[in-house]
Fold each of these.
Amino acid sequence: MTKIKVTDRAGNKLELEAVEGRSLMESLRDIDNGMEALCGGLCSCSTCQVFVEPGWVDKLQPAKDDEQELLEGSEVYRPGQSRLACQIRMSPELEGIEVEIAPAE
Ligand code: FES
């Protein structure tokens, strides 16, 4: 398990455990004030968008073209911070990562 710090859509700050080897989205879709994740992780909806705290962004694998395209088409896109949680694979290096769940569009 990897500890993560999350600000939910209501502004609440939470500490959760994410399962290594699984996507970050899987730990965030079932919480109160979480995310929809409508496509189930297929990188085709952008409803799992998070804003990654500066300082953590460089620890992530860069976004692939299809992820980047979806993010840039989003109304709430924040350059340099937005990522799709379904495309972030949890690993021990991400212990303590801080993210904010993006508002619904
Ligand atoms: S769950 Fe749809 S893009 Fe991540």
Amino acid sequence: MRTLIIAAVGALLAAGPTAGQSTPDPAVARALARLERDNAWTIEQQIALCEIPAPPFGEQARGAEYARRFEALGYRATIDQVGNVIATRPGSGGGRRLVLAAHLDTVFPEGTDVRVRREGTRLSGPGIGDDCRGLAVVLAIARAMALERIPTRGDVVFVGNVGEEGPGNLRGVRHLFEHGSAGRIDAFVSVDGVGLGMVTAGVGSNRYRVTFSGPGGHSYGDFGMPNPMHAMGRAIAAIGDLAVPAEPRTVFNVGVVEGGTSINSITMKAVMQVDLRSESAAALARLDSAFRRTVAQAVVQEKARWPGSDKSLSADIGVIGLRPAGTQPDTLWLVRAARDAARTLGIPMPRGGAGSTDANLPISLGIPALAVDGGGRGDGAHSLGEWYDDGADGFRGPQWILLLTLAAAGR
Ligand SMILES: [Zn+2]
């Protein structure tokens, strides 16, 4: 097994886009073997980190413990202004500076029971796959690189970032890229979720809370004035009729409606939450404009319905979250490096897909980026029934990502 890996790693280094040498590298082979041999350590990290609650905007405790675990491995870990944990492994110079990240936050609110149940290789608990698996894999790779003293040309910056899930609106990676809290970044890999797939394109999303307002009144006594609830109904019907392309995939959804005082009141306020998504930034921008027109028209139509009324009616579009879209060519060096690494290990060739992850932001900025799965298998992400099963070869995930990391930073 080990001989096979050494030969395969030699092939990777010879074929890789950043190959600096063509001879087999025993240190890399030892690190791969260590990830398999010390798999139980990786699983312990996954469970322990997952049992620390990390609701949106409440990642501090998990972040502090994540930093502490990097320090225990001999790294200097810092926590930036928004709560990202950053531990850098300096390169020898001349290579690309890679960020290898996993997100600290979960979708689960404060007070959720986050204890992990273990039955054999199967672990159950909220967040166990998304993204405690990623956090454990990043830590395991940092450990293997340190213990086996694997040099890279570029720096490898290990990050546990905040704010990946919906409410966080990518504020962790936004801070990394817009405020430079991890320095210059040439490439970005997020370990997010389970399996052996990867996301190479960012599905963009624009999420809004639209509030229709008026003075309100009695349903019988004040009848004849514009009704915010009816205006919202007009808007929803028009959104439902919007035309969107199947390719690039572009979708819309009114997911939540709220408002109303009582059955016999003209409400003062009606609110809807709208999610617009596309793989293409241009298609998303067109859908966004069409959506804004429907909201404006709904107000005009509802006012026109009651020409004799001087009562006000307005609609305000508030932003819940904006996630930029972007695509990368299949021939991009980072995408090829991920495939080369999979080929080296003999694991199924990952097909690139589109997703909504931390990688959206760098992709939209033109910085090579991927979101890769951390191995194993599982289901139920974002639900209390979430589970992860390491099976017999969960270590394949960290092995794959280690080879990808080394190819990206350069040897
Ligand atoms: Zn995730």
